[in-house]
Amino acid sequence: MAAPPDTRPLSPHLQVWRPHMTMVASITNRFAGVGLLIGTFGLVYWLWALAAGAEEFAEAMALVNTLPGQAILFLIVAGAGYHFAAGIRHLVWDAGRGFSPKVADLTGWGVFVFAVLTPLAVWALAGI
């Protein structure tokens, strides 16, 4: 007689694990990477407008200077800061450090704080 089929999931997934900082940071890092990829198309458009001449560049800057344009730019810079800080965090992990739950949570929060401070610092330095 065969054993009854096992109905448990084959691997951990979101229905099994309750959210914790390392999980949220990992998922957010993936979103930041995708956002940066999409933001690259905006950068290419802006560079094209810069090379195309004053009229095209003025149109591109008019888009950037709208409230939605500034919000998107803020998110792109925050995503870059997040992705950078998360990369440093992973380099530390590659060195075999920072795996204790307390340190992993602390550095996870640090990455989020860095992501918010990055565009604020850029805006302050740019005088915006």
Description:
The model has no long low-confidence stretch (mean pLDDT 92). The termini are far apart. The chain is elongated and about 80 Å long. Helix content is 76%, strand content 0%. The chain has a single domain, classed as Fumarate reductase/succinate dehydrogenase, transmembrane subunit (3 helical TM bundles of succinate and fumarate reductases), CATH 1.20.1300.10. The chain has helices at residues 21-52, 54-64, 67-94, 101-126. With 128 residues, the chain is an all-alpha fold.
The SS-based structural class is mainly alpha
CATH superfamily: Fumarate reductase/succinate dehydrogenase, transmembrane subunit
The CATH architecture assignment turns out to be: Up-down Bundle
Q: Which range does the strand content fall in?
A: under 5%
Q: Write down the overall mean pLDDT.
A: 92
CATH topology-level name? 3 helical TM bundles of succinate and fumarate reductases
Rg, Å, rounded: 21 Å
Topology, element by element:
Layout (H helix, E strand, L loop, with lengths): L20 H32 L1 H11 L2 H28 L6 H26 L2
Helix pairs in contact: 1-2, 1-3, 3-4
Keywords:
mainly alpha, about 130 residues, 3 helical TM bundles of succinate and fumarate reductases, elongated
Please give a quick description of this structure:
The protein is mostly helical and 128 residues long. The chain is built from four helices and no strands. The termini are far apart.
